[in-house]
Structure formats: structure tokens, C-alpha cells
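User: Structure please.
Assistant: Input sequence and predicted structure:
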Amino acid sequence: MRDFTTDRLHLLLSSFISAGYGFTSVAGYLHNPTSPTVILRHDVDARPENSLRCAKLENRLGIAGTYYFRAVPGSWHEEIIREIYSLGHEVGYHYEDLSASGGNFKKAIAMFEENLAKLRQHAPVETICMHGSPLSKYDNRLLWEKYNYRDFGISGEPYFDLDFNRVFYLTDTGRSWNGNRFNLRDRVTEDKGKSEGKEAEQDGVSPMSQTGSFGDTMDIICALKENRLPSVIMITVHPQRWNNEFIPWVKELLFQNVKNVVKSLIRGRLQDKI
């Protein structure tokens, strides 16, 4: 069976349900941090119709999460934003204003405020999450060194407001579950990762790293069935990667492989400068 299909995603989510995990949005967890639970996050980087398909699948399973939309044509689809919200999911802003403004902080915060207001015309927005912008030299999170997102009615941003000493992180970034292999910015800090190892040991789980690393989706399911996963996990899904149809699946595979090569080159250059 091919990995990164809609059927495989259904199996992954169903396996967590069968194991007794609850599901929640980012805002839901910040307000009520229960366990065992999966904080279900979706980054809508492209192909919003795939996100709607995921949202409907999750709705049928009786679960909900957060969908973060970028303010770019490939992600922004107002009808889909409204429909995903109507299915009981949280809608958030996947901001990239600092990179989009070329590092101009004043311009970036004005863009952030404008884009946030536009998104709030279609759904309430309580949390935000940075877009990695791997081709940009600007980390979008640096915007909050000068400004405060709480001034805009935002209650949380996962990279700042989740305690990764307690929340284990799984992400399909790079179309893999191999942790930081193709990750430039979608990661948690090393000091928190070391603490995560301690927390995992206390829970009777072998520490893997601050970000989980697995060969494929079935490896996660096997670890779950063998009780090797912590009780609180954030799973980040990029819905454009998950396709049952063969041609879209192959296109995404080929595109992501090229993108991963570019990311590896960028990472190598950054390490050479250190």
C-alpha cells in the first residue's frame, strides 16, 4: 500500500482513536490541556481542496483540528475556509509576512494585520502559526521579537505557546516522518528536545528526539500499538501531500523530492557559515 494516501491518513487517525487518544485543535489544547491527546494541525500550503477532503474525513471520524491558511492564491480559498470552519475545525493564519516583506518589520506587521482581518471575515481566528518559507533568509517568527501577537487578539502560536517538554512533535514536512532531515524551520529547540527525552522516559516511552523520526506512516502506527508513543502529541499534516489518486500522488512525490534536494543544499550552506 502506498504511503501518503488519503486511506493511509484515515488509518493513522483511526489508530489513534482506537488507542484511546482524543483529538483537539491548537486553541483547544491551549485552553484545556488534556491527555492522552493528539493536537491535530494542518498547514494549508497549497491545494486547499485537499484540505477540505481531509476536513471532511476527520469530521466523519468525529474529530477536529486546526487548519492554517496562507495569504497566497495557492492556499487562500474563501469558500473552503468557511466550509472547513463549518465542519467544526479551527481556522488559523499561516503567516509569512516577514519573509514576504523582505525583512521589513514595519511593512510585515501591517501585512499581518491586514491579512488577519481578511481571514477573520470568513472565520474566527484565535491562533497563528509561522510558515517556514525555506527559500527566504528570514524566519517569520522573528516578527514577534519586535511586536506582540496578543495585541491582535491572538491567544497562541504553537512554536511559542506549546511546551515541547511535554508535547511530542510529529510532522510530515518533506513528505516523510524523518524528523529534522528535510526541516529548515519546522522544528523545536534542542534544549526542549533534551527535556522531551526525560518526559518520554517518565511516561515509559523510549526517547526519540524532540521531533519524532519514523520511516513511514506504518512505523508510527506500529509504535502506537506497542505503546511507544507519549501521551500528548502534535501531528502536523500538509494535506496537499495526501492523495489516493495515482497521478496527483506521483506529482507530489516528484515535486517534494526536488524540493528536499533544494532544502538539503540550503541547509549545507547554512552549516558552512556557522
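The chain has ten helices and nine strands.
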